Structures are given as structure tokens and as C-alpha cells.
Amino acid sequence: MNKEQWSYVAGFLDGEGHILVQIKKAKSAWGKFCYVVVPYIYLTQKDTHVLFKIKEFLESEGITSGVYCKDKKNNTHRLMISNWKNVIPFVNNTLPYSIVKKYDLLKVLDMRRMKDKHTANDIKKILGTVDYGNTIRNIK
Q1: pLDDT tens digit string along 38-73?
Q2: What is the domain range of residue 83?
């Protein structure tokens, strides 16, 4: 692990990134409805070279991500990290260096500690931990 590179990525997340936690309604194997928490981390930038360098670094650390055009009019692009398998190592490695988004990263870890599939009561607990005023949001 390269501390200097993780520090750079954490600073980039603090300045040019956001964290989104989507709560989706799903049907369980038993036919009952439950909720699934799906995390996303985005880094946004006009310079795709920077995003591809970060993507390359993340891949060397075993984290899969994708770069796509977010807004053609403004020529902005996004690096996206999704699913728990990729988000948790990213969070664990950026958390020590993050300043602005540290609280949000900790909330992502709190959400992951819960089970993958949730009942209505579980989802109320999750929503209680969501900071609507910052970068973690609930999307229906």
C-alpha cells in the first residue's frame, strides 16, 4: 500500500468526490420484500487523464472502477466505484487521510456492518444514520 497515493486519492475525494448510498427495494428468495443498500463513490473531474491515473492505481490495489462522461456539455467525467467488494477497501484506505468526508466514510462502514438485506425496521435504523445535509443520501 502506498500511503502517499492513498492520501492523494482521499484529498481528491474530499474536494472532487461524493458518496451516494442508494436504498433499493428487492424481493427476497422467500418472496418477501426487503431493502438492499447499494454504495457508490464518485470522483468528478474535467481532466480524464487524472481519473484514469486514479483508476490505474485503484486496479493495482484490487479495486474495480469505471470512468464515464457525466456531462458532455461541460466536458466533465466521473470515476465510479460501486458494490461493497470495491467500496469497502476504498473506504478503509482513504479514511485515515480524509478530512472533509471522514464522517461520511464512517457512515458507509456503519451501513455495511448491517446485513445485506433489510426489513422495514432495519431500514429505519439505516435512515437514522443518513446525513441528508451532506453527501450521503437516500434515493427511492
Answers
A1: 889 999 999 899 999 999 999 999 999 999 987 777
A2: 3-129
